[in-house]
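Thread: quick sanity check before group meeting

JM: Hey all, I'm pulling together slides for Thursday and realized we never actually wrote out the predicted structure for the chain we discussed last week. Dropping the sequence here so it's in one place. If anyone has concerns about the input, flag it before I start.
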Amino acid sequence: MTVAEPILRVAEVEVSYGPTQVLFGVSLDVPEGGLCCLMGRNGVGKSTLLQTIAGVLSAQRGSIALGGEVITRRAPYDRARAGIAYVPQGRQAFPYLTVFENLRVVAEASRKTGVDAIEEALERFPRLRKLLQRPAGFLSGGEAQQLAIARALVMRPRLLLLDEPTEGIQPSIILEIEDAIADLKLRAGMSILLVEQYVDFAMRLADTYAVMDVGRIVAAGPIETFDRERMHDLMSV
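JM (edit): ok, ran it. Output follows.
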């Protein structure tokens, strides 16, 4: 399998929380139009890396490039305008706004999308159509996760960052989320960096993978080279 040139290139990135270093020279590529799954135990730096790519956290060293353009020092809103959409853990939404209002707020804020983008997002998650007038705070965990991803899709991103979208979700909705992600990659050609603990889910979707341990990438490559036995050792508590 030939892996496409990366849309995202993270090179030797180091990040600290105050005096405590969390990422140690992390390098990672996400192929254009492909999906890279980032795996590892809890607390090894996966979410920190996504937050650094999105601009929520600052890198003390190293570089981050999107489509060949260095964005390491750009503000989060500039990275969003450049095409990065970030879906963090926690399924963040405006709880007192309806599902439709949550989608519309993002469309209006992006200044480059509108009703068509909302419609495209709903096509990925048809379950949300029946819930458009329901306040987001009254959604189930799985419905809230679908809304969180749909809000990101309204931005029509070049790169989608997903932080453990299956965590705490019922199996039926996990399958719907998997179908939506596969469709985004195959039909829409979207590039995706997915943080995921559910190995089978990741294996079915990924083109490439990387495994983190204590703030470092300790294994990476095409998904065909994924060694389940070694990954079990790296990811076990």
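AS: nice. The two ends are 32 Å apart (CA to CA). The beta strands are 6-17, 20-31, 35-39, 61-66, 69-70, 84-87, 159-163, 191-195, 208-213, 216-222.
JM: adding both to the slides.
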